[in-house]
Amino acid sequence: MKLKETPEYITLNDPEGKGGPRNGHYAELDPHFAAAREGAEAIMATLWNADDWETFRNNWKGEAPLPEGTPKLGEDVEESYIKVPARDGHQIELKVLKSAKHTKSAATADDTIVVLRMHGGGWAIGWHNTEIIENHHAASHPNVVLVSIDYRLAPEHPFPTPLNDCVDVFKWVKANAREKLFANPDKIVLLGGSAGSGLSLGLALKARDEKIGGIIALALDWPTGAHPKFFPELREKFGYELDSYSQVPQGVVAGALIMEFFLDAYTPNVQRDQDHSPLLAETFAGLPPAFLQIAGFDPLRDEGLAVAEKLQRGGVPTEVHVYRGLPHCFSMLFTDLPQAKDYQARQNAFLEKTIKLANAK
């Protein structure tokens, strides 16, 4: 797969890599990552060695051994698959994960939360197991059913199809959670990573604007917030910094040219629309409590921080963790880092807190 020679939407005007005055310090490299960076970049380069989308997607499906402490399939979690209809008749595959040690039934439905997973992968790659570590942790909780959405991928299915698929699954869950999942349709957590975070925000805004209840929390990892074509408008109107593309143009996993590759697949001939660029929304007021984890050495860093700022300006309870000097998706790449363990522990704690609040009598 080939990238552009120069960015089309971003001006790389930060040769010293200082970033903006508010957020630039987050890019100072973590020493453990700095030592492993060259090897990680070499591995990432092999994944791009593909001449077609099928090969490219398969390159990204290799699975490393799960780190110690990850709940295991068969022992701690069990999986099943179902298909549900999209608005155009397409059958969307869902992977359902739940605790293998705690039986779900009609009697437990009121206190069982649905965690609706929108995977990452630039809207064009990725699958049910992209965030397998996080999914197994969430699904092992006795009060959780995790539902992963195999939404259709760009460029074959550009915007708005991936978002529409997620919206259609959300509405199916609302209508069928009790009967099909033994879960509460009014206790739904949206869990998204990278592109999946952007889809989660788009879905949450649609639910808010259409007055569909049931979403009790957002868990957003390395969020995408807007197409960079609209960064000048967002800087001028809202004061967001949005300098991390220029500061980290060659980040591991995600870089300026890599992001433009995926954005061009997802939103060719992009037009202004908050459905693909949630930061364009006038306000995030009315969204549920949010939990964000953001990497410091990541071109998406400032989008994530802008999302957090917009949530806070809208009066939304927001918990934010920024991991200085670590790259996009570091928790999956460097699972032995103490920060990766912190990342997972914090997500687990947020989910536990959300469940306790939702089920408080």
Automatic annotation (TrEMBL):
Q: Which InterPro entries match?
A: AB_hydrolase_3, AB_hydrolase_fold, GDXG_lipolytic_enzyme
Residues of the signal peptide: none
**Protein name, entry field:** Alpha/beta hydrolase fold-3 domain-containing protein
Q: Where is the Alpha/beta hydrolase fold-3 domain?
A: 115-331
State the species of origin.
Sporothrix stenoceras
According to the record, the residues making up region (Disordered) are: 1-23
User: Keywords of this protein's UniProt record, alphabetized?
Assistant: Hydrolase
**Lineage, uppermost ranks:** Eukaryota, Fungi, Dikarya, Ascomycota, Pezizomycotina
Query: Pfam families from the xrefs?
Result: Abhydrolase_3 (PF07859)
